[in-house]
Amino acid sequence: MKMTATQTGCDIDTAFAQISGSPLHYDSILSSNLGLQQALQLLSDRVKLTEAELNVLECFACGAGLRQIAASRQRSYTTIRNQFQAILEKTGCQSQTDLLRMLLGLSYLLTANACNSA
Questions:
Q1: I need a labelling partner for 88 at 20 to 30 A (CA). Which of 56, 66, 110, 118 fits?
Q2: Domains of the chain, with CATH numbers?
Q3: Contact 77, 66 (CB under 8 A)
Q4: How far apart are CA 43 and CA 111, in angstroms?
């Protein structure tokens, strides 16, 4: 049986703080990956994500779970889940894994393209 992060007591924020000695700031992760930033913006523009949906997707792309996103954005879990479902529908993805695979692939292609252009 596969254990979830919640069941194992693993919390990405806590683990990061223990390893680095400072709290996890998703903005710092996102700003360090230009390809991911470009992928998020391109996807957002292409499928017409709302600002709230883009914010949820940014947190998700940086490794946050839906409950963590809800807590950090001070929204209910149901609201975040609904926004995430809208993201899946707009992108045509069937699961969180599909969405993450698409984002990482797009990020890789954008980064590779930028490296080849230089």
A1: 110
A2: 12-111 (1.10.10)
A3: yes
A4: 15
Q: Which tens digits make up the pLDDT trace of 24-66?
A: 444 544 445 677 888 899 899 999 999 999 999 999 988 899 9
Tell me if residue 115 falls in helix, strand or coil. Answer: helix
The answer to whether the beta carbons of residues 8 and 18 sit under 8 Å apart is no
Give the pLDDT band (50/70/90) at residue 12. very low
Global confidence as pTM: 0.69
DSSP string, 23-91: ---HHHHHHT-HHHHHHHHHHHHHHT--HHHHHHHHHHHTT--HHHHHHHHT--HHHHHHHHHHHHHHH
Give pLDDT, residue 3: 34
| C-alpha pair distances (Å), 4 with each of 7, 10, 11 | 5, 8, 10
